[in-house]
Amino acid sequence: MTEPERLAPAGASQDAALPGDEDTVDYPADGKTGGNGRLCIVTRESLPVEALIRFVAGPDGQVVPDLKRQLPGRGCWVTARRSMVDQAVKRKLFARGLKAPVKAAEDLGEVVDRLLCADLAGMINLARKAGQFTTGSSKVDQAVRGLAALAVFHASDAAADGVRKISQARKASSFAAEDGSEIPAFRFFTAEEGDVLFGSNSFIHAAALAGQAGEGVVKRATMLDKYRDTVAMGASRQLTS
To answer: Residues 51, 29: contact at Cβ < 8 Å?
Structure first.
C-alpha cells in the first residue's frame, strides 16, 4: 500500500474510526485481516486492497476514484468490479462510506473503466520502451512459441484468422509450460480505440514480454478484465471517448 492507512483495533465496530481520526481514517476500518484488507461498502466483505478500488471526496464534493490509493483524506472501498461500483452509486453508499454529503456521478463506473484503460495504456507504453512489449502477428507468434510472452493482446475487431493462429501458438506453448497452462489473451479495444489510446503505436496483435514492465502490463490487464466482469478473450465493451 502506498500510504499509511490505520485500521481499527480487532473487535472494534466496523463503522468506528480511531480516536481523533474521524476525518481521515478510511471507512469501514477493518480489524479482521491483520492490516492487509478493507471492507467493501457494497458487499461488506473483507478483501485485500488489490481487489478493491478506493474512493475519496473531491474538493467539489464529487466522488473521485483513487486507483493508486494515494489521495489524502478519508476513503472508502468498493470491490473492483463495474457492477459493484454501479451498485454503490445506485444505493447512494458513498455518502455513508465517506461520512460526507458527496455526490457520485451516474457514470462513475464508466469513469473508472476509462481510468483503468488509461493506466493500462500508460504501462504498455513503458513496457514498449523497456523492450518488454512487442507488436505484429509474426513477432507475437515467435514470442509465444519461445515462451517469452506473459500475455497476448488482440484488437477486439481483429481478423479471426490472425487470432486463431496465435491461439494455436498459445496452445502449443502450454505443452512446454511447467504448469501446462496457456498464457492469457485479452481483447479490450477496437483498432479505432487503440489508435486513440496509442496513436502511431497502436496494434492489432501484441504480447507483453517477461520483465518488470511486462508483468505490470499483465497486472493491469487482469484488473481491467475483472472489473468488466469478463474473462480473458471474452467480449469487450465499447469505450466511450
So the answer is: no
Query: What does pLDDT average to over the chain?
Result: 84
The string over 72-83, giving b where at least 16 C-beta atoms fall within 10 Å of a residue's C-beta and e elsewhere, is: eebbbbbbbbbe
Radius of gyration (Cα) for the chain, nearest Å? 20
Q: How far apart are the first and last CA of the chain?
A: 31
pTM confidence score: 0.80
Contact 63, 103 (CB under 8 A): yes
Instruction: Please determine, for residue 85, whether its predicted confidence score (pLDDT) is greater than 60.
Output: yes
Distance in angstroms (rounded) separating the CA atoms of residues 55 and 60: 14
Local structure of residue 133 (DSSP, 8 states): E
Per-residue b or e along 51-66, where b marks 16 or more CB atoms closer than 10 Å to that residue's CB? bbbbbbbeeeeebbbb
